[in-house]
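Narrative summary of target 7.
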Amino acid sequence: MTVAVTSYVLLAIALFCIGLFGVLTRRNALMFLMSVELMLNAANVNLIAFSSYHGNLTGQVFALFTMALAAAEVAVGLGIILVLYRNFRDVDVTVPSAMRW
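Modeled conformation, tokenized:
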């Protein structure tokens, strides 16, 4: 039993739209990071679906690189969140209005 590629594309569209909605509406930095992760996972679903459809491993290799990028993004993002909380006692991304020395 095989699943059509359109099902995977619709799943990726749904994941991406949920992530985009979270990025545009949430002010909490942790929710912002989680929304970006959803968007990256939507790209991974597309990469793997089209890779299996065409019968090569290129998309799966790119998905692995995307997962490594997501792990690095989380590490940097959590560092930024810790500095944000240390300086402003809040993880609201709208609190720091300007970069300062």
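The chain is about 75% helix and 0% strand.
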